[in-house]
Structures are given as structure tokens and as C-alpha cells.
Recover the amino acids of this structure.
């Protein structure tokens, strides 16, 4: 008897030991496996921290998106998984100076160059860290799931703007998670109903039930009662409110945002022709940019500098003549003038103050930074968001153009004296103060 118990204890003990052993084994296995994985991440030398990735992202959007996207070919190849095709040192030298790599006779680079019809990728004056951060960004994007069709809205600019990407989780994910939960709930419901019906059938076959039990058993589910019940009403109300709040928030975020806005203009005036092909300087027509708040839309007089002679027979040019009541036959003006009604594309609300000369003349910014490649547009569209966040972001990131500006020389001295290693940015000269942008 005693021996039996002892045996039993012993066997229990060995089972326990066996279990412990198994546990320890799995643990040690899984940790060593995790270590392997960490080692793999470090061995390609591409950092995975968020700060680096964000830095890479902004470098990428500012310098590369004209020609590259992650998941699709634009001017250059899609960059998805490029960190697997090439190692980091190769990518660093290629991105900094692709021509040098091609001229060195690197097979991969030469083939790629030929494949892309010898399109030049410009050189970039980046440090290794900067290029690494771009690669880190490309890697992190490559590992993210490709955007689903319809997930992003393609604006006329060919850019993809996704609505709800501001937060950590994209709204696509949220929808998928919610749908998954819904499916699980429905499954649970079905199983419960099945169980109930089986139980009912089982119980009704039993004879010894008292009155009360029978009553419960024969009860039918009263749909009307359910609909009117408090929990049901509460739940519906909650769902309704949740959907309404989401719609309102989505709506608020898009108020006044007209990126991609491209109205039809009264005269088929083409920037691609005038500013692109004929290389007429932007300032020739937009006379205000260097010295005034507003860039100005040119008056018909400026068009007439050329079109009094050029293309006089074109119906589009005749519209200019009609506006200023000009008779090309007699070369005389009548007095029935009407301004050409160009449709305004860029429009900040009245509460905000924006000054062109401050940015173009003092700041030394190109028109293209904010307006995109206008000289390639047949019809101009709004390239940037023009939201407060857009202004502020650039003020945070852009260094003040202090060259040859005595006023800034002083500021720069002060800034350096303050022992700041960061360069002087627009935010440091008050570019984030509410009153600078709001009357
Ligand atoms: C003016 C267009 C243009 C710009 C801007 C540009 N690229 Fe490229 N890129 C190309 C083209 C075209 C190729 C194909 C090779 C060639 O023709 O030289 C290429 C190739 C590459 C490759 C090799 C791709 C592969 O599949 O192996 C990488 C990596 C790359 N670019 C990264 C960048 C990065 C990073 C930037 C921004 C800092 C950038 N490029 C900016 C046009 C451009
Ligand atoms: C020959 C005259 C001419 C030249 C040169 C010219 N533009 Fe224009 N621009 C116009 C006219 C006319 C309009 C109004 C019609 C339209 O939107 O196309 C306009 C509209 C615009 C708009 C949109 C304004 C709005 O309504 O918000 C922008 C931005 C712009 N131009 C930028 C540029 C840039 C940048 C350049 C130089 C690369 C340039 N323009 C060169 C005549 C010119
Ligand atoms: C500096 C000279 C110059 C100025 C200023 C200028 N244009 Fe032109 N424009 C041209 C030239 C050159 C052509 C191309 C003619 C051709 O295709 O033979 C042209 C073509 C056009 C055409 C196309 C006509 C057609 O039917 O093919 C339109 C429309 C036009 N311009 C409108 C305007 C308007 C509106 C303005 C004023 C905002 C303007 N242009 C100012 C030089 C000018
Ligand atoms: C820092 C960004 C930025 C730069 C750089 C810039 N613009 Fe603008 N531009 C804007 C904004 C913002 C508006 C809308 C202004 C408003 O509604 O008050 C605008 C409006 C315009 C308009 C519409 C008429 C007006 O004056 O409101 C024209 C034309 C224009 N820009 C041309 C140019 C040209 C040409 C250049 C280059 C010489 C240029 N812009 C450089 C941001 C910029
Ligand atoms: C592409 C970058 C960029 C964007 C976008 C931009 N700015 Fe600026 N902004 C600058 C730079 C650079 C300066 C500094 C100019 C200088 O040296 O004084 C500046 C200066 C200013 C100043 C003067 C600040 C001061 O303290 O003197 C105001 C006001 C201003 N911006 C308003 C705006 C508004 C409003 C918008 C959005 C509609 C905007 N900016 C968008 C680059 C930008
Ligand atoms: C660099 C310029 C700039 C600075 C600095 C700035 N704003 Fe704005 N703000 C804008 C522009 C441009 C708009 C209009 C664009 C929009 O509606 O998104 C705007 C819009 C707003 C609006 C209206 C939002 C709406 O949806 O209509 C409020 C409120 C506002 N700003 C408050 C502030 C406050 C408070 C500060 C100081 C902490 C500030 N802003 C600093 C440029 C600026």
C-alpha cells in the first residue's frame, strides 16, 4: 500500500520533471531562435528604430518620390525589397552617385541603366547615415503590406494620398480587425443557437419536468420584445453614434483640403508650353512673387506682348482679344473690356497670412517646392496640402537661408554662440508663432 503510494508519487514527480524539461527546452530553443533573428537584423546593418525611419521617410519624400515609389515603377524602378537585391554599401554609393557606379562597370548597375533607357538618376550630396536612413525607410515600407486598391486616392498629380494614415494603425487595418471581430461574433452566435436547440430537444424528451420548466421551454423568442429591450436599444444607439462620430471626424479632416484641385480654365493656357517648352520665366507673368505678398495672375496685357503677333488666328487667343476688346484686323482696342475670369486654384482662408516675397525672395525657395513641377503641367493643379500642418512642418524642417543676409548673420552668430549644434531653422526665427501667420 505504502509502496504503491510512493510509486505513484515518484511517477508523478518524473512526469513533472519531464514537463519541466520540455518547458525549459522550448524556452531555450525559442530564445536562441529569437537571438538568431536579432542577429539577422543587425547583420544587414540597416537600423530599425523609428527615428531613423522617419528621417529616411522625409528625405525620401523630398528627394526621391518624383521618380520612385515603393510598390510601383515610376520613372525609376519600384524600390520594394531593394535592400535584398543589393547590400547596404552598394546602395550607399549608388544613391550618392549612381553614374560613378555605372561607369565603374558594375554589371547590375549597367544592366539597370540600360533597362531604364539610360535615364540619369541625379547624384545626392548625402552622408552615409542619411542614405542608410532612406534604406531603413524603404525596408520598413517593403515589409508593410502593399496598399490595397482603393485604399488610397490618386490625385491628379499622380500622388497617392491616403486619408486616415495619421495615426499608428491605418484605417484599412482597423476595418479588417473590426470585420474579423464581427465574423467571430456571428460564429459564436450560431454555435450558441445550435447548443440551445440541441438542449431544448433533449429536455423536451425528458418526462419529469415541472410546470415552470415547461413554460420556459415552450417560450418562443419574441423579436419585437428583443428590439424594444434596453440592451438592444443601447447597443444600436452606441453603434449609430460611433459611425456618426467617425464620419464627422473624417469630414473635419478634409475641410478645405483641396490637394489636386484642377478646375477648367476659361482659356486653354498651358504652363507646359509657356514655362516649359518656351522657358518663359515665372516672374515674367507672376510679377509679384519677388516683391509682394501675392504672386499675381497676369493681366491680358502681358499675354498681348506676344499674342498681338503670335497665333492670332487661334480660337483660344481670340478669347484674349474678346476680353480686352481688341480687333486684330484693325489692331485697335474698343472700350468694352472684361477681365478674363481665371478660376483661382490656391486659396488660403482669410484667417491665414502668406507672403510670396518672404518665401521666394528672402527664403530662396523655388516655386516648385510648394507648387510642384508647374512647367510640366498642361493645366495647373494644387500640388500641396496648404494646411497649417503643411506650413508648420516645413518651418520645422527648413534651414534659414542666411547667405548674404546681414540681418541673419547676426542671428546666426547668436544661434551658434548659444552652443546649438542644430542648424538655424525657420522655427527658430519665429516661424511657429501664431501671430506671424494669423492676423
Ligand atoms: C530623376 C529621377 C530619379 C530620382 C530623383 C531618383 N532616382 Fe533612383 N533611379 C532612377 C532611375 C532611372 C533608376 C534606374 C537606374 C538608372 O537609370 O540609373 C534608379 C535606380 C535607383 C535604385 C536602384 C534600384 C534597383 O532596383 O536596384 C535605387 C536604390 C534608387 N534609384 C534610389 C533612389 C533614391 C534613394 C533616391 C532619392 C534620394 C532616388 N533614387 C532618386 C531615377 C531617379
Ligand atoms: C506666360 C505667362 C505665365 C508664365 C510664364 C507662368 N505662368 Fe503661372 N499662370 C499664368 C496664368 C495665366 C495663370 C492662371 C490660369 C491657370 O491657372 O492656368 C497661372 C496660374 C498659375 C498658378 C495657379 C494660381 C492659382 O490660381 O492658384 C500657379 C501656382 C502658377 N501659375 C505658377 C507658375 C510657375 C511656378 C511658373 C514658372 C515655372 C509660372 N506659373 C509661369 C501665367 C503664367
Ligand atoms: C513671351 C511670349 C508669350 C506670352 C507672354 C504669352 N504667350 Fe501664349 N504662346 C506663346 C507662344 C510662342 C505660343 C506657341 C505658338 C505656337 O504653337 O506656334 C503660345 C501659345 C499659346 C496658346 C495656344 C494657342 C493654340 O491654339 O495653340 C494659348 C491659349 C496661349 N498661348 C495663351 C496665352 C495667355 C492666356 C497668355 C497670357 C497669360 C500668354 N499666352 C502669354 C508665347 C507667349
Ligand atoms: C512656400 C510655399 C510657396 C512658394 C515657394 C511659392 N508659392 Fe505660390 N502660393 C503659395 C500659397 C500658400 C498660395 C496661396 C496663397 C493665398 O491663397 O493667399 C500661393 C498662390 C500662388 C498663386 C495664386 C495667386 C496668388 O498670389 O495668391 C500663384 C500665381 C503663385 N502662387 C505662383 C508662385 C510662383 C510663380 C512661385 C515661384 C516664384 C511661387 N508661387 C512660390 C505657396 C508658395
Ligand atoms: C517649403 C517650405 C515652406 C512652406 C511650405 C511654408 N513656408 Fe513659411 N517660411 C519658409 C522659410 C524658408 C521661411 C524663412 C524666410 C526667411 O528667411 O525669412 C519662412 C518664413 C515664413 C514667415 C515669416 C516668419 C518670420 O518669423 O519671419 C511666415 C509668416 C510664413 N513663412 C508663413 C507661412 C505660411 C502661412 C505657410 C503655409 C501656407 C508657409 N509659410 C509655408 C518656408 C516655408
Ligand atoms: C506657419 C504659419 C502658421 C502658424 C505659425 C500658425 N498657423 Fe494656424 N493656420 C495656418 C494656415 C495656413 C491655416 C489655414 C489652413 C487650414 O485651414 O488648415 C491655419 C488655420 C488655423 C485655424 C483654423 C483651423 C480651421 O480648421 O479652420 C486655427 C484655429 C489656427 N490656425 C490656430 C493657430 C494657433 C493657435 C497657432 C499658434 C500656436 C497657429 N495657428 C499658428 C498657418 C499657421
Amino acid at each position: 500500500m505504502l509502496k504503491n503510494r510512493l510509486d505513484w508519487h515518484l511517477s508523478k514527480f518524473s512526469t513533472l520533471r519531464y514537463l519541466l524539461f520540455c518547458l525549459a527546452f522550448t524556452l531555450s530553443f525559442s530564445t536562441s531562435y529569437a537571438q538568431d533573428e536579432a542577429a539577422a537584423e543587425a547583420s544587414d546593418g540597416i537600423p530599425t528604430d523609428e527615428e531613423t525611419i522617419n528621417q529616411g521617410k522625409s528625405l525620401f519624400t523630398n528627394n526621391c518620390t518624383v521618380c520612385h515609389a515603393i510598390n510601383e515603377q515610376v520613372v525609376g524602378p519600384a524600390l520594394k525589397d531593394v535592400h535584398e537585391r543589393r547590400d547596404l554599401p552598394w546602395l550607399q554609393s549608388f544613391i550618392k552617385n549612381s553614374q560613378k557606379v555605372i561607369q565603374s562597370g558594375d554589371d547590375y548597375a549597367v544592366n539597370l541603366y540600360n533597362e531604364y533607357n539610360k535615364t540619369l538618376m541625379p547624384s545626392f550630396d548625402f552622408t552615409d547615415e542619411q542614405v542608410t536612413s532612406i534604406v531603413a525607410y524603404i525596408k520598413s515600407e517593403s515589409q508593410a503590406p502593399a496598399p490595397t486598391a482603393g485604399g488610397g486616392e490618386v490625385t491628379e498629380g499622380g500622388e497617392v494620398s491616403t486619408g486616415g494614415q495619421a495615426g499608428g494603425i491605418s484605417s484599412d487595418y482597423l476595418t479588417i480587425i473590426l470585420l474579423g471581430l464581427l465574423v467571430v461574433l456571428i460564429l459564436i452566435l450560431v454555435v450558441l443557437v445550435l447548443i440551445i436547440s440541441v438542449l431544448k430537444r433533449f429536455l423536451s424528451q425528458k418526462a419529469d419536468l415541472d410546470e415552470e420548466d415547461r413554460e420556459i421551454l415552450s417560450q418562443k423568442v419574441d423579436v419585437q420584445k428583443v428590439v424594444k429591450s434596453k440592451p438592444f436599444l443601447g447597443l444600436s444607439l452606441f453603434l449609430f453614434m460611433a459611425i456618426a462620430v467617425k464620419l464627422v471626424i473624417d469630414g473635419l479632416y478634409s475641410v478645405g483640403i483641396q490637394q489636386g484641385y484642377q478646375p477648367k480654365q476659361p482659356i486653354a493656357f498651358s504652363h507646359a508650353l509657356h514655362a516649359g517648352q518656351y522657358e518663359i520665366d515665372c516672374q515674367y507673368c507672376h510679377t509679384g512673387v519677388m516683391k509682394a505678398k501675392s504672386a499675381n495672375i497676369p493681366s491680358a496685357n502681358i499675354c498681348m506682348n506676344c499674342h498681338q503677333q503670335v497665333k492670332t488666328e487661334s480660337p483660344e487667343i481670340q478669347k484674349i482679344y474678346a476680353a480686352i476688346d481688341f480687333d486684330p484686323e484693325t489692331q485697335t482696342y474698343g472700350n468694352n473690356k472684361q477681365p478674363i475670369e481665371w478660376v483661382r486654384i490656391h486659396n488660403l482662408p482669410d484667417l491665414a497670412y502668406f507672403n510670396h516675397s518672404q518665401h521666394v525672395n528672402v527664403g530662396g525657395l523655388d516655386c516648385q517646392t510648394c507648387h510642384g513641377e508647374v512647367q510640366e503641367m498642361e493645366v495647373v493643379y494644387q500640388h500641396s496640402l496648404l494646411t497649417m500642418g503643411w506650413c508648420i512642418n516645413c518651418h520645422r524642417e527648413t534651414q534659414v537661408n542666411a547667405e548674404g543676409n546681414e540681418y541673419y548673420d547676426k542671428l546666426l552668430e547668436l544661434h551658434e554662440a548659444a552652443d546649438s549644434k542644430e542648424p538655424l531653422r525657420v522655427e527658430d526665427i519665429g516661424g511657429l508663432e501664431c501671430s506671424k501667420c494669423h492676423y
Summary: The pocket of heme C (ligand 6) is lined by residues 255-256, 348-349, 351-352, 387-388, 391-392, 395, 431-434, 436-438 (CB under 6 Å). Residues 1-39 form one domain. DSSP finds 20 helices and four strands in the chain. The beta strands are 153-154, 160-161, 326-327, 332-333.
